[in-house]
Amino acid sequence: MTSLELSDIWKAFGATQALAGAAIVVKPGEVHALVGANGAGKSTLSRIISGQVRPDRGSITLDGNPIRFGRARDAILHGICIVTQETSLAPDLSVLENIMLPHLALPGRLRWRRLREKGQALVGELGKEAGLDLDAPVSNLSIGQRQLVEILKALALDSRFIIFDEPTAPLSPHEAERLFAIMRRLAARGRGLIFVSHRLEEIFTIADRVTVLREGKLVEGNLAIGSLSQGELVRLMVGRDLQDIYGRNAGRRAIPDSHPVVLRVRNLASPPMVRDVSFEVRAGEVLGLAGLVGAGRSETIETIFGLRRATAGSVELDGKAFAARSSREAIRAGIGLIPEDRRGQAIVPDFSVRENLLLAHLGARSGVGLGYASRTAAIRDLLALLDLPERRLLDANMLTFSGGMQQKVIMARGLLLSPRLLLLDEPTRGVDIATRSSIYALLRRIAGEGVACVVVSSDFEEILGISDRITVLSDGVSVTTLPSHLVDVEKLAMFAAPRTSAEKTHTVLSDLVARQGGMAYWVIVDAGRVFCFDRVGTDAAADPGFAAGGFPLLAETSIAAALANPSAGFVPSADGARWTLLVPVSGQRGHSFGTVGLTLARPPDGIDAAALSGSIAGSLNEAIDHGMTGAGYAA
Amino acid sequence: MNAENAPAPSPSAPAAKPRRTVLSLLATNIEFRMVVVILFVMLVLSLASPYFLTVKNMLNVADQSVIVGMVSLGETLVILIGGIDLSVGSLVGLSGIVLGLTMRHLGLAESFAVCLGAGALAGLANGLIITYGRIAPFVVTLGMMSIGASLAYVLSGANSISGLPPGLGTLSADTIIGIPLDFWCLLVVYAVCYWFLTSTKGGRTLYALGSNPEAARVVGLRVAAWSVIAYVVSGVMSSVAAIFLASRILSIDPIGGQGLELDAIAAVVIGGASLFGGRGSIIGTLLGVFVMVFIRNGLNLLNVSPYWQGTAIGSIIIIAVLVERVLSGARRRA
Q1: All residues at 6 or more sequence positions from A76 whose CB lies less than 8 Å from its CB, including other chains
Q2: Does B213 touch chain A (CB under 8 A)?
Q3: I need a surface site. Which of A407, A516, A574, B172 has the fewest CB within 10 A?
């Protein structure tokens, strides 16, 4: 029996102990989920498996033989590959050239025809869902398709074990479902897949077995997924209830209208990433900006902060028009930014912690001198608040500290100037779980003091946990803003689906309206509300009482009767003015994608409801499949 | 959690605090190391050559270090922001010629102003093209190096300019407490630069810019403006060097500054600055200038063939930086 086994793996980065006795056993033919909260050591372990990082100690055996990796190349030679979120493709080369890139390093003449045949065979192995053109330049592909190219690259190297590191983060639900189908097929063909994720639904959808890490240690290995409930897995991951991490009491706060609106953004555009974004934040409120990678969330707050030019729309700060031309103006106006990329955008590596902390002060200050002394007392208070040891900290080099510690310093930098509006971009990325919960506590506290906070996060659970309201962005457009207690991860994902994949559903709705008239829409009905993702049609008489992005109570709609009692045929509204047909939509593997509805302002005489439902369901399934395969080319 | 409470010892907080011995200073402080090296070189040279420690030779060394030192100061600012200025040598030649030509018509002070303006203008062109045109500093200043050398020839007709007003010579001939005026100027300029780099917003902006330009921009520092200013200062310092060079030999040669850029870059790098920016000190540069000047002087005194001097100096630069790399690497591991 061949298998890949890692046991008692230890690894420290500087002062941070990333792994302290981690282990995993992967067998061919299985999808093995490696799970844990942020900072549990999942990524470090997968980088060790793929040879990018050398462990301090621990053993790795393949088929019972101990192996040692000096370089990533050694792992590849042993048939182990990693597929990461940030793909390492050469954008100007074609798909085929990228797949065969490792062959370019081999001696001898290249035989393109043979490589092409091999490439086609590999695409065949992924199945028809892949729909990749071998000659297309990689720069034309969507993120999801680039990931497939990475997988093909791994297959071209005859990899027996493939690690998928958080592969679904940038994907729409459709694309994720396609990826899962491909992963299943690869597993069925005897490859061992390691699936790194912290998204529970996905783990239960795709994994056969689970290994759980917490704070670098092995908690449980080789659990069959069938033996677990979601709640049990959460407890294993975090060691306590999820609710505790976000530190909120029962019920989320609704910010009263009496709190003044601090920031109002209207139709903001900053091409190409930000196209039409509107939202507002009140004093004391935490607003989450949710969306997939590439939806324009970071770019939106960078535009507000003056790091990007706005080409259209308006920003109001405290009711007055505000257009920052530089971050300096934004800081002086009382805005703080905690940027997404700590190493790239926040830390000045050659400066001490003290000077890093004072950097925003320096940026906001006018005059020649430094004025550092004027902030000494404020720094002391802040460090006490953040639970940071002042004496040992200030003169030390920033890079000797853990990610969580660095993030606290960067937060302190933003808070030192007492902002009225704080923009936080992925504030807990690469942060250990203990620091994570203290960052959440800090956030609540800042908001409690009346600061308006905007938080960008890719982690839907996190954004649900910390926000009072959530604005969802999709392809640079703000789709809706909802109170966070009304939504769950699934609905956020549906709202956040990229336009390119929603386009096909939109086409189906348009066709429906063209043929039957009235209004067609795509919704989820849940907990007494209807959440509308898309609506087509101009016939006001057929208005169902909600529009795209809306989430009214059933009773507030004009088709409450139909929504409350799902049935196979047309249902008349209470006043008899509208007739509604609802068709449930599900993906290939039975995953629900909500409901498509058609409302007519006339009795459905002469319409065969059953046949129409069938044709809607059919074209939608096709659309979902196409939406998955064709998504990239439209972009 | 351990990481939270037990930060690793860092370079700026020496681990060997209880025993601040000469050895620990040697291991942690680059300036101290360089002073030791300079004293060692002086000792060796004074034993090897009876002329080395004479007043005449020391004055010569002082004169030489003024020229290299002025240019190196500007180069330090540019290298701190992660750039490089290859044009300083040819700008010394060009602004020297400008100085010589204007002195035929104008007084000393006016001519100085025009000369400094010429250097500032060339530096401004460098800075604007590099900062706003987003072209690699190496390319832009390489181009300016060629332009400067060519214009110096064009303006001078490829002849050196002599018959300069004798008043010019007082800059290097006069002394205060036995030390030449130009050397005092060097010390004053370096003191001002030290204050600028350590205690002003502009100085810290240069360091932040070199260390992480994106972070500097995000926190609202005036990144673009200070980047341009660094190149302007570098151009101006070339003109300053040209003035002192002219005052020393009372004649101006269009190729008077040839090769100075290499001495300047070497001095900055020997002084501990990183060519990637963000790291370095003006004291380090000054000491680096002395190292360069002493070594050149020593090679001359020891009658080393000029053909071999390049090899000797090149090797010394590489060895110095290599040793620095090893030492700072060892410190980081500690």
Answers
A1: A51, A102, A157, A159
A2: no
A3: A574
Interface subset of B 250-309, CB within 8 angstroms of A: 278-279
- Confidence at A99, pLDDT banded by 50, 70, 90: confident
Q: What's the pLDDT at A193?
A: 94
Q: Quote the tokens at residue A588.
A: 């290939």
pLDDT higher than threshold 60 for residue A593: yes
Token digits for A255? 């910010």
User: What is the distance between the alpha carbons of residues A179 and A126, in angstroms, rounded to a whole number?
Assistant: 9
Same domain, A126 and A161: yes
The alpha carbon of residue B167 is apart from the nearest alpha carbon of chain A, in Å, by: 36
CA B272 to chain A, closest CA, distance in angstroms equals: 13
Quote the CA–CA distance of A400 and A390 in Å, as a whole number.
15
Are B263 and B241 in contact, with CB atoms under 8 Å apart? no
Q: Give yes or no: residues A477 and A510 share one domain.
A: no
Count of the separate structural domains present in chain A: 3
Q: How many CB atoms neighbour CB A485 within 10 A?
A: 14
**Tens-digit pLDDT profile for residues A234-266:** 778 877 655 556 665 434 567 777 889 999 999
| Contact partners, residue A532, CB within 8 Å, separation at least 6 | A521, A522, A523, A546, A547, A548, A549, A550, A551
Which class does domain B51-303 fall in? mainly alpha
Answer whether the bond into residue A272 is a cis peptide, omega within 30°.
yes
Residue A337 falls inside a structural domain: yes
Pairing mode, if any, of strands A592-600 and A579-586? antiparallel
- pLDDT by residue for chain B (334 residues), tens only, comes to 333 343 333 344 433 344 567 777 776 777 888 888 889 988 998 898 888 888 889 988 998 999 999 999 999 999 999 999 999 999 999 999 999 999 888 888 999 999 999 999 999 999 999 999 999 999 999 999 999 999 999 998 888 888 788 888 777 778 888 788 899 999 999 999 999 999 999 999 999 999 999 999 999 899 999 999 999 999 999 999 999 999 988 888 888 888 899 999 999 998 988 888 898 999 999 999 999 999 889 999 888 888 998 898 889 888 888 887 777 654 443 3
Amino acid at A167: P
Asked whether the CA dihedral A557, A559, A560, A563 is positive or negative, the reply is negative
3-class DSSP assignment, residue A117: helix
User: Which residues of chain B does A307 touch, with a Cβ-Cβ cutoff of 8 Å?
Assistant: 217-218
Helix (H, G, I), strand (E, B) or coil at A364: helix
How far is B10 from chain A, CA to nearest CA, in Å?
Answer: 5
One domain, residues A331 and A307 = yes
Q: Which helix (H) or strand (E) holds A46?
A: helix A42-49
> Do the domain assignments include residue A252?
no
The nearest alpha carbon in chain B to A354 belongs to: B12
Q: Is the ipTM of this complex over 0.85?
A: no
Asked if B291 and B34 touch (Cβ cutoff 8 Å), the reply is yes
Asked whether the beta carbons of B189 and B236 are under 8 A apart, the reply is no
Report phi then psi at A341, rounded to 5: -100, 95
Q: Are residues A517 and A465 in the same domain?
A: no
The strand pair at A452-456 and A286-290 is best described as parallel
Task: Tell me if chain B has a CB within 8 Å of the CB of A364.
Answer: yes
Domain C-terminal end among A491, A511, A538: A491
A178 touches A129 (CB < 8 A): yes
